[in-house]
Amino acid sequence: xxxxxLDRFDAAADPALPTIRLALDPAEVKRQLRRLVRLTGPxxxxxxxAIRVTRHKPGRxxxxxxxxxxxxxxxxxxxxxxxxxxxxxxxxxxxxxxxxTFWDSGFDAECGDRISVPEPIGTVAKFRMWLQRKVPxxxxxxALAGPDxxxxxxxxxxxxxxxxxxxxxxxxxxxxxxxxxxxxxxFARMAVxxxxxxxxxxxxxxxxxxxxxxxxxxxxVGIHRDFYPDQVxxxxxRLYVIDFDLYCEGEAALDVGNFIGHVTEQSLRTLGRxxxxxxxxxxxxxxxx
Length: 289
Description:
- The chain is α+β, with helices and mostly antiparallel strands.
- It has helices spanning about 20-25, 25-35, 35-40, 95-105, 140-145, 150-165, 175-195, 200-215, 250-270, 280-289; strands at about 5, 45-55, 60-70, 75-85, 115, 120-125, 130-135, 140, 220-225, 230-235, 240, 250.
- The protein has ten helices and twelve strands.
- The strands form three sheets. Strands 1-2-3-4-7-6 form a six-stranded mixed sheet, with helices on both faces. A four-stranded mixed sheet has the order 5-11-10-8. Strands 9-12 form a two-stranded antiparallel sheet.
- Helix 7 packs antiparallel against helix 8 (about 200-215).
- The chain is globular, with a radius of gyration of 21 Å.
């Protein structure tokens, strides 16, 4: 079996993720994937083309892509890329169940509003992994910078609203106080690395505390909690929202505020001005509110 295996992070050597070595073995991967009826059908055939580690956070998590050719008894051969996720001390069942719940709640690939999630494929217990189909398209980071950026911003606001009103149960919560705590921890690390900015960082944090205190609270809903442009894939008129790893219960504004903050950062980093994409930010906020 001539299958290209790329592990540029040396994830297979991570002692906290002992199943990665197996998940990079082409023969073992083929044996496991052909058991996934949602992928192959009852008598389908899996042919491996390539395996590559695309992300690895040592000791915590790993993402692997599998390029496959699938032959089914009742359909033409299909070229597929699957994304497999492994997290330390997890078995993948919770991630698969959550994505399946979204898929079954009106986020499937044929839904009429064109706001979808990737198709969940299954779990592989031996790898402690769950798998989803990789979706086509470009990231919203690129789409928002293009000529149709305002249109995409409005559609992204609709996607956020759809997630929030889906009312899919979450096992954890995240409040404004948690956001402030995370910000305080980040500023503290930055102040150690750059002592010259310690005073300014403290002033910014105090201002954030005042703003948070003045912000009216709203009833918690299910939120993405890691909602930013790279988590949205644009394929023509369809959006795919990806990576629900931090999904929890919280205030809806946290998702939209996080997204707008990332657009402002993108604007400053790539275009040299914090307001260069302000029309996209206004369109998203106006549509969401």
